[in-house]
Amino acid sequence: MLKTFKGGIHPEYNKEYTNRKPVERAKLPSKVIIPMSQHVGAPCEPIVKVGDTVKVGQKIGEAKAPVSAPVHASVSGKVIAIEPRPHPSGALVMSVVIESDGKDEIYEGINPPKPLEELTPDEIKTIIREAGIVGMGGAGFPTQVKLSPPSGKTIDTIIVNGAECEPYLTSDHRLMVEHPEDVVFGLLAIMKATGVKKGYIGIENNKPDAIEAIKKAAKGFEGIEVVELDTKYPQGGEKQLINAITGREVPSGGLPMDVHVIVDNAGTCAAIAKALKTGMPLIERITTVTGTGVNEPKNLLIRIGTPFNEIIEQCGGFKGEVGKVIMGGPMMGLAQGLLDVPVIKGTSGILVLQKKDVNVEEPSNCIRCAKCVDACPIHLLPTTLAKFAQKGKWIEAEQYHAMDCIECGCCAYVCPAHIPLTQWIRLAKNNIVMSKKK
């Protein structure tokens, strides 16, 4: 029996646009816009100035806070601006703009470290930090912080998230098919860095080629097990993945480390492998460019900082009347108002939908059907939380565990009254956080 969790939904996955298309290397951009914040935590501080010449892999943003991650030049060329620029989050973020010289020269300081077997756990974590590696599934949590739990928090299990449950996206799928050895190598490095002997790689059963490739790559490595998961959204959520694979349940307000688990994305593992094998920091990532509104859907290996409009042009441009451009997938992605925003470390997808495929229904009154309650993978009461939000009752929303909501969108997806439940709960969460800051 395939492993899974209670709740969730089965949306149209629409992965056939790109799931059989090998990864192509995107064209070298004419310029890159590299935000100093591409991660959870404190932003970096620029350590270059306008007029400087930089090379590929050179550090251009220093992380001075404990929870942060440095950023690096993804092209060689000249720094032409250091200023706030539009970010996929919708905010203006301090960014370093580099005009490419087309030479793609590698920074002299990029050298392969010692072999993995010769590295100490602390050395591995230092390499991961200096390479600027963060969660590549979209959350962007600095990986070295995740691999350094506080005193008293013991870890006995590492889980690699290869579920990729979000509709349309296939970047992790193609990574696991084409470079399974990097995913396994990254897991081995994480296991050594944390002293853990057991590692799982969870993959949904709608990716049989990825399951086969990863099983072959993991063969012979003691302690690594590939787990086939039921195809269900949000199977790739940390808490859902932990529950499906181990049977453990992360407590309300808790983190995976509270049940002795660390979860890392397949793309994160591959980035770790590249840093440990070559010394190259995180300067590029695989991104799925897909949807009904783009002429040639593709999986592209893209330099960090490349503007969305350049990438869409490389996929044949827009098709039909465009209704929405989203960074990520349709369930948890961020709708974009501008197309000159850059690809960042967490850009797993660029989804373009035609206007006819963007349905915005007028909400009506709740009919008390409880479909949202059945679908919620966290076992919350979405309609109750939404009502608290509508009335500004933030204390009550917190008491009903609004902060445990993972904003997966399942409740809004199944609601026959078309109530934007997820958005109301997000409003409650934001106000709860702001009230605590005050």
Keywords for this structure?
438 residues; alpha/beta; Ubiquitin-like (UB roll); Rossmann fold; 3 domains; 6-stranded mixed beta sheet; 4-stranded antiparallel beta sheet; globular; iron; metal-binding; Soluble_ligand-bd; 4Fe-4S
- Categorize the overall geometry: globular
The residue ranges in which pLDDT falls below 50 over 5 or more consecutive positions are none
As a percent range, the share of strand residues is: 15-25%
CATH topology of the largest domain: Rossmann fold
Text of the CATH class of the largest domain: Alpha Beta
What does this structure look like?
The chain is of the alpha/beta class and 438 residues long. The model has no long low-confidence stretch (mean pLDDT 97). It is 27% helix and 19% strand. The longest helix is centred in the C-terminal third of the chain and has 17 residues, at 421-437. The chain folds into three domains: 24-106 and 281-356, Ubiquitin-like (UB roll), CATH 3.10.20; 117-278, Rossmann fold (3-Layer(aba) Sandwich), CATH 3.40.50.11540; 371-437, no CATH class. A six-stranded mixed β-sheet has the order 1-14-13-17-15-16, with helices on both faces. A four-stranded antiparallel β-sheet has the order 2-8-7-4, with no helix packed on it.
